[in-house]
Amino acid sequence: MLSRVAESVYWMARNIERAENNARVLESRLIHALEVSDTGAVADGDWEAVVEICSSFEDYRDIYDDILPETVAHYISFDRTNINSIVNCIEYARNNARSAREIIPQELWEILNDAYLTIQNQNQSYWSMKKIYAFLQSIKTLSFTLQGVIESTMLREGAYSFIKIGKWLERGEKTARILNVVCEKTQEQEEEIQTEHYYYWLSALQFVNGYDAYLKKYPPIMDAEKVLHFLISYHQFPRSIEYCIDHVREAVKELEGGKVSHYSEELFDALDYVSNEFTKIKFQQMTSEEIGPFLDRFQNNCNHIGYVFSKTYYLL
Amino acid sequence: MLSNYRTAHFFDEMMEAEKRPRPHYEKFHRLLQTFSLEDLLEKHETAQLSFLRQGITFTVYHDEGGTERTMPFDFVPIIIPHEEWNTIEEGLTQRVKALNLFLEDVYNEANILHDGVIPREFVENNPYFYAEQATGLDIPHNNHIFLAGIDLIRDQNGVYRVLEDNLRNPSGMSYVFQNRFVMRKVFPEFFFKHSIRTLEHQFSYLHSALLSHVPINSVAKTYPVAVLLTAGIYNSAYYDHVFLAQQMGIELVEGHDLMVKDDVVYMKTVRGLQRVDIIYRRIDDDYLDPAEFLEESALGVKGLMEAYRKGNVAILNGVGNGVADDKAIYAFVPEMIRYYLGEEPLIPNVDTYFLRDPEVREDCLSRLNELVVKNVGASGGYDMLIGPQASEEEIESFREKINETPEQYIAQPTIQLSRAPAFQEGRFYPCHVDLRVYVMSGESTYVLPGGLSRVALKEGSLVVNSSQGGGGKDTWVLREEAADA
């Protein structure tokens, strides 16, 4: 397989996953906003967190002074200047697919192209929150459909592995980013009463669609330690960081036919390094002060894996 | 359905006279009557959407960048009876053979120039004549034309004539297949009643023609590695490239996917470098190799030409083919056929006048309103004057251009291009059509049955190019037995 094509499918998968994750984060914030009286500094802080998770608050600030729910929703969903906006992710994914068309399933291309054309033909400037909400759901459904096509039709060959690696890396990084932002928020409000924390940890779970799963394992008390454990290393939860990294490793192993060659050694080393970090924290209690640096390190390590990965397969 | 359809003084592919179809269209005509207008509108819509959804688009460039568009599809097919097709097949095989001999000749001994059959300056002043880069090359089968697209038209008497040869990067083959595919999906009824030459298995011919061009120094002579070189997703014919690569099962590569090391071409894969034997390139000569053509080209591969010259890689179509398919050389193709093959051309040209000749020029300038004027270096319907349809200003501006650089222009009588019914906006009306036929060559030559029928959907327009609002039709070549059935 051509390196360029491998890179295209890798980024296609990342962009699809990113669109889905951003849609979910925004959606869950919108639902919450409907449930509680949603004004004041706390609410502003929450919208800020959403922007920080889905793109960059600094970039947002360059354009807007206010944090209005509508503005944020439009910025994350439709703003072309926001490189991580959902419509941009879909367009990138579609162009990635287009330059790998001859090796991906025809249906995968058609569905992605269809979604892209639909978005192109809409003028979303004045969409109400209700319409945006429906849009977010359609993006999630799109991602599920695309993953279904990949699982049910693709040959288990190189391209499939590259798609998987892109997807799991993106997902793991996003969970880390969510935790990072949430940890910062809880620290900012250290003086506040416990109920505020409760609310933050709850939203962290909701952002990754893990609340229901969490309730099956733990009582409905948002204990920081338990939530962190659940999202970082609960191996049965398919969005926990450890689960994602293990799957990246599996996909790489598959690609390499189960062997570590000299050229793939560095990549396996980088993956091992991250796994070891997890093993360490499993056995120690971390406070929310310690968890921040850990997550920073993890995000850097993910970047490093991405870099070594690209180098290994000549994607640079 | 076609009760208000008028053939006027044009040759109509389908209707012999008012309300009377030609014999080979009778069945189709009968079937058409069984559909209601609503049916047809719905089917028409389904067909257009199918193209869009599959991303079968081409890119049109304008000031604000590029837009992806689909080529409009019209469901009234062009049906060609068996015997007529035989003539086309033979005539085009003959023509491509002569054109290939011409290319081999001008880049070697140039006998045809020494013998004065073609004036030397027509070749030597041609901007696509790459003497320096392409002279004396030893190429597989001495074949320069792996894939040709020959454009045919029919005049008011129904006589097929060659309008243009495309020997560089003829596009549109994917549409032949997609038009058929969509037609089968939307109008399965038609196919039960007709026995037509199938398009299945055609790629095995193209594929084996491609692989027969193994370069002499290949180390994988039995299983050579072939790739299709594209300019990328922003190229207007990108879908065509994707389709061909997919159907032939070869890698679709861009310039930066390839590299040349020690005069050998490699592609960059996730497992390192892999040697490439045959490159079917769909980028122009100018962009092929920055070391020998345009220095700023980012689409090509540095050192490619040297690898080609050394016999380490084959490049298809050959480098420098442009000298044989420009609009001036075109006029000499009948002479080439006589010169190289000692045969009479089976399919005539359209008469062509050279405006460089003062007498001819004077005559033509006095009647520009009845002629078609073309820039010999342009393609895609650009820089072209259609006299009978042009305004006074347009004619004047061409008069100036011709006087400025007369050698740049040729003129042809305005042919009353044949027409065929097209169903657009809920009614049938006559539109001008032409036919691009694809000829593939390797060890032997093979003509794809049918081809791409292009239709000028703007009522009265003569321009069929997709970049200028043209559309496509399915083309059916009837089987022999079907003729009497």
Describe this structure in words.
The complex is a heterodimer of chains A (316) and B (485). By secondary structure, chain A is mainly alpha-helical. Chain A is built from 14 helices and no strands. In chain A, α1 runs antiparallel to α4, α2 packs parallel to α4 and α8 runs antiparallel to α12. Chain A is globular. Chain B is α+β, with helices and mostly antiparallel strands and 485 residues long. Chain B has two domains: 304 residues, no CATH class; 61 residues, Dna Ligase, domain 1 (2-Layer Sandwich), CATH 3.30.1490. Helix content of chain B is 31%, strand content 25%. In chain B, α3 crosses α13. At the A-B interface, α1 and α6 of A face α10, β9 and β11 of B.
Quick description:
Chain B: InterPro entries: ATP-dep_Glu-Cys_Ligase-2, CP_ATPgrasp_2, UCP005522. The complex is a heterodimer of chains A (316) and B (485). Chain A has helices spanning 3-35, 40-54, 57-63, 69-78, 86-98, 106-120, 129-153, 158-188, 194-207, 211-217, 224-233, 241-255, 265-282, 288-312.
Number of strands of chain A: 0
**Strand residue percentage of chain A:** under 5%
Helical coverage of chain B, percent range? 25-40%
Dominant shape of chain B: globular
- How many helical stretches of chain A? 14
**Multimeric status of the protein:** heterodimer
Radius of gyration of chain A: 20 Å
Number of self-contained structural domains of chain B: 2
Largest sheet of chain A: none
Domain Circularly permuted ATP-grasp type (chain B): 77-456
Protein name (chain B): Circularly permuted ATP-grasp type 2 domain-containing protein
